[in-house]
């Protein structure tokens, strides 16, 4: 009986061990590196792309037809307004001028004799020395001669203008480009093809595209600063900074209905003619000072497949939250955050792959260089 009793107790003990509840498992709280965001004053700028264009541009065209005798400039040189550029064969125009001049002199001589006769007849008619009809005819002839002189003077002036136009001059001061004609070419008055183009390079334009909403914000900032212009700096194609500062002219513009964008024009001095028309540049528009700007390290901002920016933060209950954010331009290694984050938020910059929204995490402050605080 003792043997049976011991066996039952042993079996009961084994059965009790099999039914025992296992101890609860506790998930370890993940350490994540965070940066506590702080608002700060920030000089805000936006970077836009654009191309340069000359502030003055004039196409050179002939105003009379003829054969080009000479080209009087070197392509690519700087020319002055009124400087001779081409010479058209003037022989036919000089002949027309000489003919008009001779015709005028002939008309003037007739005026002198006929009007003198009219004055003499006006005296004689009082003494019945000539008939009234003869006096009236002499007076009429004098008036016709004077009208003829006026017409001949106009014809001479027209001939003089045409003769002067055989020397084609520059309409503006600037740098002249490639000539489309050579000596011996036949040109016609006001032809559609320009002989050359002169561009004024002392002042340059940069045309920039911006959304209409951004334009309204820029206007408000300009009004708030009591200034109708905003300063602009240029980054050239080789990455260098252009030495001169320009101004963004907030002029009347039309909104492109298809894109909702507008074209703004920045004006730059170009004393050394470093800027040339057609250059691709990046313009940094100084938009003023944002008093409470939030700058977030770039490693704390991620983007989904659609380009939407998100961030993970640790809240006051040590829980991870996912925020949708809107970013502006970059400043060094940081994004300017326009929406979604605020001062005091603990932005996760290390260990984002270890946590998800809703999980518990321990926030460990890190420095901007990635080291522990």
UniProtKB/TrEMBL annotation:
One Pfam assignment: BSH_RND
Multidrug resistance protein MdtA-like C-terminal permuted SH3 domain span: 292-354
Positions of the Multidrug resistance protein MdtA-like barrel-sandwich hybrid domain: 58-198
Gene Ontology CC: one annotated term: plasma membrane
Entry's transmembrane regions: none
Topology class, membrane: Lipid-anchor
Subcellular location: Cell inner membrane
One Gene Ontology term of the molecular function aspect: transmembrane transporter activity
UniProt entry keywords in alphabetical sequence: Signal
Signal peptide: 1-20
UniProt name for this protein: Efflux RND transporter periplasmic adaptor subunit
Lineage: Bacteria, Pseudomonadati, Pseudomonadota, Gammaproteobacteria, Enterobacterales
């Amino acid at each position: 009986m003792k043997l049976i009793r011991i066996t039952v107790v042993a079996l009961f003990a084994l059965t009790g061990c099999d039914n025992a509840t296992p101890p609860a498992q506790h998930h370890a709280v993940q350490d994540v590196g965070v940066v506590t965001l702080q608002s700060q004053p920030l000089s805000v700028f936006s970077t836009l792309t654009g191309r340069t264009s000359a502030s003055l541009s004039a196409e050179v065209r002939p105003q009379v037809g003829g054969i080009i005798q000479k080209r009087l400039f070197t392509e690519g040189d700087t020319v002055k307004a009124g400087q001779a550029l081409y010479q058209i064969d003037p022989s036919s125009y000089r002949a027309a001028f000489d003919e008009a001049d001779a015709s005028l002199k002939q008309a003037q001589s007739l005026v002198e004799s006929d009007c003198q006769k009219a004055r003499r007849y006006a005296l004689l008619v009082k003494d019945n020395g000539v008939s009234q009809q003869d006096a009236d005819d002499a007076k009429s002839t004098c008036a016709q001669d004077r009208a003829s002189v006026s017409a001949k003077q106009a014809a001479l002036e027209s001939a003089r203008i045409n003769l002067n136009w055989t020397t084609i001059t520059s309409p503006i001061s600037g740098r002249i480009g490639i000539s489309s004609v050579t000596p011996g070419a036949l040109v016609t008055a006001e032809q559609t093809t320009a002989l050359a183009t002169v561009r004024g390079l002392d002042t340059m334009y940069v045309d920039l595209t911006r959304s209409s909403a951004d334009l309204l914000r820029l206007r408000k900032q300009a009004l708030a600063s009591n200034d109708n212009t905003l300063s602009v700096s240029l980054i050239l194609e080789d990455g260098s900074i252009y030495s001169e500062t320009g101004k963004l002219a907030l002029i009347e513009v039309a909104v492109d209905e298809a894109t909702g964008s507008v074209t703004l024009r920045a004006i730059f001095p170009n004393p050394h003619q470093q800027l040339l028309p057609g250059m691709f540049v990046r313009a940094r528009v100084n938009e003023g000072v944002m008093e409470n700007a939030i700058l977030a390290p770039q490693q704390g901002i991620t983007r989904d497949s659609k380009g939407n920016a998100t961030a993970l933060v640790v809240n006051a209950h040590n829980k991870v939250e996912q925020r949708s954010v809107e970013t502006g331009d970059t400043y060094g290694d940081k994004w300017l955050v326009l929406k979604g984050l605020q001062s005091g938020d603990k932005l996760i910059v290390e260990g984002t792959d270890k946590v998800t929204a809703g999980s518990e995490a321990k926030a460990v402050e890190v420095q901007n260089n990635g080291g522990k605080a």
